[in-house]
Amino acid sequence: MVLKQRLESLAMAGVQQLPKPRIASTPPAAVASSQPVATFQPLVVLDPAALADRERRLDEVRQEVAGCTRCSELAAARTHTVPGKGHAAARICFLGEAPGADEDASGEPFVGRAGQLLTKIIEACRLSREQVFILNVLKCRPPGNRVPSPEEVSHCRGYFERQLGIIDPAFVVCLGTTAAQSLLKTTEAIGRLRGRWHRHGNADVICTYHPSYLLRNPAAKRDVWDDMKRLMERAGVAL
Ligand code: URA
User: Fold this and answer.
1) Cα 142 vs. chain centroid, distance in angstroms?
2) What CA–CA distance (Å, rounded) separates 106 from 82?
3) What is the pLDDT of residues 51-85, one digit of tens each?
4) Is 86 in the pocket of ligand 1 (CB under 6 A)?
5) Is 185 helix (H, G, I), strand (E, B) or coil?
6) Nearest alpha-carbon partner for 95 in 113, 118, 75
7) pTM: predicted TM-score of the whole model, two decimal places
8) Which atom from ligand 1 is nearest to the alpha carbon of 82?
9) Which of 6, 28, 79, 100 has the greatest number of CB atoms lying within 10 Å of its CB?
10) How far apart are alpha carbons 28 and 36 in whole angstroms?
11) Ligand 1 centre and the CA of 100: distance in Å?
């Protein structure tokens, strides 16, 4: 299982051939007797009441989103609102742009082709979707998957900011331009926002390419893999 995940991580990074194994310079006995390696805890340990309180507050946001009509065009066209999904105690949140057709049909974030690629990215980080929280800037699908307007983002800002405030993650991964520019309130291009750390609330923020962009430009997977390695390194995990 671990080996399979490792190979998937390498494939995700575009690696097609493995180098010959190097002879270890440290004898196995010395490795075995070294200090235990700290492992990343994807969930904050909360007492049951605190966890239930977060879940209740997230559910309040979900209910408000379900009845929201601030963007009349989007509200009229939607099948479902897509508030987001994941663990209320997650230390990592993934922020996308807006639901597409599959998400509008199901009410769940990132379930289409881009979502399947996001699942692979999460699993390559040795995490599962259940151990993170996945949300979008917009909670309704823009017709034809067009880019959200600044007005639509401003209508949804209260929702995604509140969600992040409740979860209070250690890390936010912004997937693509809309997520990065909306969260960080900037007009800088995603290519310039990548490769360095940003801050939002108590969270370290990293920006990377959107999985939909990777479907059109598979060569950019290597950059996303570099970003994920940087993220997990700060979390204490060498990928
Ligand atoms: N793209 C997004 O940004 N979010 C989704 O939920 C699906 C596709």
Assistant:
1) 20
2) 8
3) 999 999 999 999 999 999 999 999 999 999 999 99
4) no
5) coil
6) 118
7) 0.88
8) 6
9) 100
10) 14
11) 6
